[in-house]
Design a protein that fits this description.
The protein has about 260 residues and is mainly alpha-helical. The chain is built from ten helices and no strands. The relative contact order is 0.11.
Length: about 260
């Protein structure tokens, strides 16, 4: 294929647009159901408890729950025995196909849910004002809580994308089980390796360490400060891995999985 390693914005846009248009009916039905539930719960909250940040927390619940469903089904054409070969033969590069699915389940999904939820929040608070003469704060998509929640969604959703492209059925449950299984095996292997390599060095370590600290004259405050500094460095490294490395790594795995299948 000539366009195999080429990214063209027009083709990419058409793939994203088709993904939205083909699922327009499902988007409208789900939006109506969620909007009706939100109108009811918002009215009940305004009448009984009046939580000021109702819409921020309700939207995050919708974002994560809906995102799990969307992500688990984002590659359903790829796994279909009839639609899969046809989808791979679409006149677009593999990079465009993979990136369009990633963008549909992340940026496009977030923007659509924000716009729809904002409209429903306007309707619900107008309804609350007419009935109870009080209302919640309108949904603000630029609230720091929402922005942080969206960023966290991008990270947590990335491994689920890998599961969606690898597992044909029940991708969500299989992905969660795979993550838990690999994490457990990793920690067991690391613990066993540490015990195997350094096991003999731990015998009498604490009494010897206490004597060394007394001889060196290091204060308890200095020890605590060094431990806190080490913990800060470790946390900083983990944040880089969590926020900056996990999503692009998972997206790259999705691309190479599609590339492997296309061959």
């Amino acid at each position: 294929m000539i366009t195999h390693n080429i990214f063209h914005p027009t083709r990419f846009y058409l793939l994203v647009r088709n993904g939205v248009v083909l699922n327009k009916s499902a988007i409208l039905i789900v939006s109506a159901a969620v909007g009706g539930l939100m109108l009811f719960l918002s009215a009940m909250d305004a009448f009984l408890g009046y939580r000021q940040w109702f819409h921020q927390w309700f939207y995050l619940g919708v974002l994560y729950l809906g995102g799990l469903i969307v992500t688990s089904r984002i590659f359903k054409e790829f796994h279909d025995t009839v639609k899969g070969p046809a989808w791979l033969l679409i006149p677009a590069s593999l990079l465009e196909k993979a990136s369009s699915r990633i963008v549909l389940s992340t940026m496009v999904y977030v923007v659509i849910t924000m716009l729809i939820y904002f409209c429903f929040s306007l309707a619900s608070e107008g309804f609350n004002w007419l009935l109870f003469r009080r209302y919640h704060s309108l949904f603000n998509p630029f609230d720091p809580l929402i922005l942080h929640g969206v960023a966290l969604y991008f990270v947590l959703q990335a491994p689920l994308l890998v599961g969606a492209v690898y597992f044909q059925k029940h991708s969500l449950s299989k992905t969660i089980l795979a993550i838990l299984g690999y994490t457990f095996v990793f920690f067991v292997v690391v613990a066993f390796a540490i015990w195997l390599i350094f096991g003999n060095y731990f015998d009498g370590l604490l009494p010897g360490l206490e004597a060394l600290i007394e001889q060196s004259g290091i204060s308890d405050e200095a020890i605590i400060a060094n431990i806190e500094r080490l913990g800060g460095v470790t946390l900083w490294i983990w944040r880089i891995i969590f926020w900056a490395l996990i999503p692009p790594l998972c997206w790259a795995i999705c691309y190479y999985r599609l590339k492997e299948t296309e061959r």
